[in-house]
Each structure stands twice: as structure tokens, then as C-alpha cells.
Design brief:
The protein is α+β, with helices and mostly antiparallel strands. The chain has helices spanning 64-73, 105-116, 120-129, 134-146, 179-195, 214-229, 236-242, 244-251, and strands at 3-8, 24-26, 35-38, 52-58, 83-86, 88-95, 200-202, 208-210. The strands form three sheets. It has a four-stranded antiparallel beta sheet with strand order 1-4-6-2, with no helix packed on it. The protein has a two-stranded antiparallel ribbon with strand order 3-5. Strands 7-8 form a two-stranded antiparallel ribbon. Helix 3 (120-129) crosses helix 6 (214-229) and helix 4 (134-146) packs across helix 7 (236-242). The longest helix is centred in the last third of the chain and has 17 residues, at 179-195.
Length: 252
């Protein structure tokens, strides 16, 4: 049996879409995608917002077919992987997703909710209000965080303007877990929903690029999440710089 955590991203077709505490969630077959149980809370890979977070216990295999299927699911997992692939779990507890973002996770959720509901008008307000020194302040916060990571020295003093995560620095990719990536994904989703194709362009490598004001608004919200989620990484001056845009739209 494996105890751990499952993040459910809201897809109605996934096995745990309707999960309830005290119930058992089971895949309809042994075919992927499997239920991914993360062994540590700080290893949970949340790729979409909003979502639900559960503490679970895997259900042991009983039949030879189940044991063979679990063995197949475990193929290609590296030794010491921070997650397991399973077919059934008992749901022990539902947790607030805010815990994924650290002790100040509730404040980060406020930023995520704004990003998820972002309109072009508010995106413009954020872009206009973003402080010209915010990029430098954001880099300094990253450098302070990297100084406390086991492999952080390799990445210090780099260009961290707009960085979502530094996975090689330590066991966690950022000061607030997956929040930076989720903020950017929410802003991109809002731009697609409310700005349509006019919110994007394609570069010479055929990669989709988010246009203004959405792109600067996304960066401003990431900077706000840094301050609100990891206030110990900024001094008073940088705090004011990084939250200038956030404070402007909160007052509106």
C-alpha cells in the first residue's frame, strides 16, 4: 500500500473526478492514464487550476492480473521516484489546495483566482501599474531562495525574470510550489477565453506567444504571488515594487 496525495484537475472523465472522502475510487480498466499518487505533498504536480487535493491510500492488488498490471504501470519509473501509479485508492481526506503553495497558500490562491477570472480590462490595468523595477526585484527574490537550496548555487545570479520554476535547485522547484506555473496557465486560459486569437501570435519557431496586455499582466501576477506566498524573500522596498500592480487592481 502507498499513502500519498492526488491532485484532481477537474476533468469530468478522470477516475477521481467525483471522489468523496471515505469512498474508493477505481479506474474502469488497467489502461493509462493511471491514478498518480504523490508520496510527498511538496512533490504534487498540479497542472491546472482550480482543482481538488486528496490524501489517499492505494488499494493492494489481489489477483494475478492486478499484480501484473501494477508491475506494468511501474515500468520506466526511476528509482526513488516521488510518485506511484495505481488503479484504485481509498480517499482518506480532502485538503485545501492552498497547502501546495506553502504556509501562505491562501494569499496565493487569491492571485490564482484573479488570474483565472482575468479580463482584458484588468490585464491592461495590471500591465500599466507594473513597476519598472519589478523584474530586478523578482530576480533578487529568486536568488535569495536559491541560496537556501542544495543545488541553488549553480542557478544564482541568472536571468530569472518571469521564471516559473528551477527544478534542479532542490526538491521543490520554486518558493511556492507549482503556483507560478499555475498563474501563468490561468492567465493564458483567460486570454484565450476572453481575448481569443487576437491575444496570441506565433514566433519563427511556430511557438504560440501571449501578447500584451496579457503577457505583462501574467508576469505582474506571478510577482505578486512571490511576495504574498514567500514574504521572507523580499525586503520592504522590493515588496512595494513587486506588489504595485496587485495593489492597483485590488483598489479598483
Amino acid at each position: 500500500m502507498v499513502d500519498g496525495f492526488v491532485y484532481v484537475k477537474g476533468d469530468p472523465d478522470e477516475p477521481m473526478a467525483g471522489a468523496q472522502v471515505g469512498a474508493r475510487a477505481r479506474m474502469p480498466s488497467f489502461d493509462p492514464p493511471w491514478i498518480v499518487v504523490h508520496h510527498r505533498l511538496d512533490a504534487v504536480h498540479a497542472v491546472r487550476w482550480p482543482g481538488r487535493l486528496f490524501r489517499v491510500r492505494s488499494v493492494p492488488a489481489v489477483t494475478e492480473e492486478e499484480r501484473a498490471a501494477l508491475a506494468d504501470a511501474a515500468q520506466n519509473l526511476r528509482v526513488g521516484a516521488s510518485y506511484s501509479r495505481v488503479f484504485a485508492v481509498d480517499v482518506l481526506e480532502e485538503l485545501r489546495p492552498a497547502v501546495l503553495f506553502g504556509p501562505n497558500g491562501d494569499a496565493v490562491v487569491d492571485v490564482l483566482e484573479r488570474a483565472d477570472q482575468l479580463t482584458e480590462s484588468v490585464a491592461s490595468d495590471l500591465a500599466v501599474a507594473r513597476h519598472p523595477d519589478a523584474g530586478d526585484a523578482y530576480r533578487r527574490a529568486w536568488d535569495r531562495w536559491l541560496s537556501g537550496q542544495p543545488n541553488g548555487a549553480v542557478y544564482r545570479d541568472g536571468d530569472h525574470d518571469g521564471v516559473l520554476a528551477v527544478p534542479g535547485a532542490g526538491p521543490v522547484g520554486s518558493p511556492i510550489g507549482p503556483a507560478f506555473a499555475l498563474v501563468w496557465r490561468c492567465v493564458t486560459g483567460s486570454a484565450r477565453q476572453r481575448g481569443g486569437s487576437a491575444a496570441f501570435t506565433v514566433d519563427e519557431d511556430d511557438d504560440e506567444i501571449l501578447l500584451e496586455p496579457w503577457s505583462t499582466a501574467g508576469v505582474a501576477l506571478m510577482e505578486s504571488a512571490m511576495v504574498l506566498g514567500a514574504p521572507e524573500l523580499v525586503d520592504d522596498a522590493d515588496r512595494a515594487v513587486l506588489t504595485a500592480a496587485w495593489q492597483a487592481v485590488r483598489r479598483s
